[in-house]
Amino acid sequence: MSEGSLDGRVVVVTGAAGPSGTAACAALRAAGATVVGVGHSPARLADLARSLPGLVVETADLADAAAVDALATRVRERHGRVDGLIHLVGGWRGGDSFTANSEADWRFLSAGLIDTLRHTTLAFHDDLVRAPAGRVAVVSARAAAKPSAGSANYAAAKAAAEAWILALADSFRRAAAGSGPGAPDGPAAVIFVIKALVTAQMRTDRPDRSFPGFTDVADLADRIVELWAADAAELNGARITLDI
Ligand SMILES: NC(=O)c1ccc[n+]([C@@H]2O[C@H](COP(=O)([O-])OP(=O)(O)OC[C@H]3O[C@@H](n4cnc5c(N)ncnc54)[C@H](OP(=O)(O)O)[C@@H]3O)[C@@H](O)[C@H]2O)c1
Questions:
Q1: Taking each helix axis from N to C terminus, what angle separates 217-226 and 19-30, rounded to the nearest 10 degrees?
Q2: Which atom of ligand 1 is closest in space to residue 140's alpha carbon?
Q3: Would you state the pLDDT for residue 144?
Q4: 3-class secondary structure, 101
């Protein structure tokens, strides 16, 4: 995407201090967007802000609905609009057998992978519908459709997140249908599906590995920026596989 293609747009990136969040924030900033990077750890966010001039950072526990509502109010008051929600909160727990799927792991995964998505999409829904081309993206895993015994908790959480996004896409479809001919592009929600992520640092650390089927965070970031160039009706509800 060309420099400046996202001038004037405001994009919220959750999980901003993670590997994909860092790459997405950099690519969105390079395309001209105002980027609000949201995370948990103030220290990691401060490091990110230092490395990426112009990035706005916000600390919030996105598993806490009231904290997310307060975050949305701050973003609205400061920036006046929200054109994108790129939800990159992660976390993994699993074991080597079906019965190793513990309660504690489910609580961790359902809070991180489902609750944070529910809270943020509910809080920003109306802003995204109002935007000329609102965009929401999540990154799911192959495991959601092809779980292994030991990853039942993780796969079930990812599958639930996918279902949530499809419901959001239905809401966006209804909103666009009600806006009439000549209206702007309208909102779209998409699911990127990967096997695993790889970073430049991982390639440097393990020159002996080829990372087959992995998605480079830089490629994912480019796909995120391109969401605003694509037609909402084609994007909305799409499950886009990036690992082949
Ligand atoms: N990594 C992979 O190989 C892989 C494979 C399949 C799918 N995915 C998906 O791809 C996406 C990005 O993955 P990633 O590896 O870049 O992410 P990640 O590093 O696992 O997580 C990103 C960030 O999420 C933040 N976070 C966690 N819980 C939070 C909460 N309650 N409130 C606010 N922030 C919270 C953490 O922030 P703090 O550091 O500030 O605590 C963390 O830096 C995720 O949705 C992940 O499930 C990744």
A1: 40
A2: 7
A3: 96
A4: coil
pLDDT at 80: 97
- Separation of alpha carbons 116 and 65, rounded Å: 8
- Residues of the chain scoring pLDDT < 50: none
- Domain positions in the chain: 10-241
Please name the residue whose Cα sits nearest to atom 9 of ligand 1.
139
Tell whether ligand 1 has an atom less than 6 A from the beta carbon of residue 55.
no
Top CATH class, 10-241: alpha beta
84: left (phi over 0), alpha (psi -120 to 50) or beta: beta
Record the pTM: 0.97
Residue 216 annotated to the active site: no
**pLDDT in the model for residue 4:** 81
Q: Output the average pLDDT for the chain.
A: 96
DSSP 95: -
The response to whether residue 62 sits with its C-beta less than 6 Å from ligand 1 reads: yes
pLDDT at 1: 56
Report the C-alpha gap between 88 and 112 in whole angstroms.
10
What's 131-153 look like in SS3?
CCCCEEEEEEEHHHCCCCHHHHH
**Number of residues assigned to the chain:** 244
How is residue 227 written in tokens? Answer: 């969401």
